[in-house]
Model the fold of this input.
Amino acid sequence: MSQHLSDLLLTPAEMAAVDAAAAASGIDSFGLMERAGAAAAAAALRLHPDALRFVLLCGPGNNGGDAYVAARHLQAGGATVALFHLNDPSRLKGDAARARAACALQGQALDLYRPESGDVVIDGLFGAGLAREVPADVSALIGRVTEAGIPVLSIDLPSGLDGRTGKVLGAAFRSQNTITFMTRKPGHLLMPGRQLCGELEVFDIGIPARIVRAAAGGDIAENRPDAWKSVLPAEQLETHKYKRGHLVVFSGAADKTGAARMSAISGLKAGAGLVTIAAPHAAIAANAAHLTAVMLHALDDEADLEDWLSDRRLQTFVLGPGFGISARARGFVAALADRHLVLDADGISSFKDDPRQLFDLFRGKPRLVLTPHEGEFSRLFPDIGGDDALGKVDKAVAAACRANAAIVYKGADTVIAAPDGRALINTNAPVWLATAGSGDVLAGIIGGLLAQGLPAFEAAAAGVWLHGEAGQRAGKGLTAEDLATHVLPL
Done:
């Protein structure tokens, strides 16, 4: 478990449970709002010392209450402040009503705001609890602010974003900065929410850690070493190559061998004791010309594979990079049904017409890792991928459950999911990882970790993290070949 509350991810529902538990424990809920609003005001002054006017947008709930508190503190600090409210503020209840009553400013209706040069908008309309599309007047306001290029500081989450999924609900602010409280939400990390939040700051408003941790379900978290380091194999002085696992990567035809080599080299760099490329006889020479530490094994068809699999030391495989979409791929996967397999690229697409054929092969303890990008995911899970009511985490978990596999749902916000409902959101990958062959490297890294004995979900999550770290080391302008050389073992 993470040692820092700011490292946790709580859904909006879980954060609401934290607020309720804090109030039930006797903590003054208005005191929490006071600290949240004061933190927002302090952030605004620190980030925008040259602002000519702070424009507070106050919503109909507690997010609006935070904004009223912020407005009071900004005015007391001598700043020029204007206040605009959504709906009738006299209908506010509880702490939000108290916050408004304590603010001497007279607000105006939201649709009266027109951006002016020197404005800084402090967005306190909805926060993370929004569950439906923003009203038309809010959408129009967001459009005016965006067009004018006015900087926005959002309280909790840019209004218009879903705090659980990071999706835009009709329209959303693009904030330069977002200040949230106690913990982050999945919507802060998932795209496009991550981009729209700008720079994120987590502020402790004084809710005891025991209350926050008690509400944290733990099913959704950021992909960090804390999530999987406990299952890493212990380093031992007395070891040999087979104890560190033997990874097999299948090569494509003679003119499509590069992808398999990048996977194989990456698996070796990730710590596998041995790595072999299994290639058709016609592709042996092409592979041999580029390999030294990686071994080669000639293998043309399912009969050859079945014979080779009599060696029970062969337990972990990568199939897909450069392999070709084919019945041959399906036959190879069927032969590997009792082994550990990373299925990538062409291997995934080979089952697009009958995904159930794949899923039925890998029942029992999860030993399959699937690494689809958006298009491959939709081909393998068309109903899940096409369900707009689901966020990326929900989709990945549903797919993992159906396939009984660890799912690496790739993208700028790669999500790793397990059949038991756990999900991790990856954040360390630089944008320049989006290059041809990068996925082949990732498949090899995951395969190398599987070969060392990591469970499927943890191998997938650690592999994605190592992939991001390698991308950071390789730097801008990397090629997949560069990336493979920067992979380091855990």
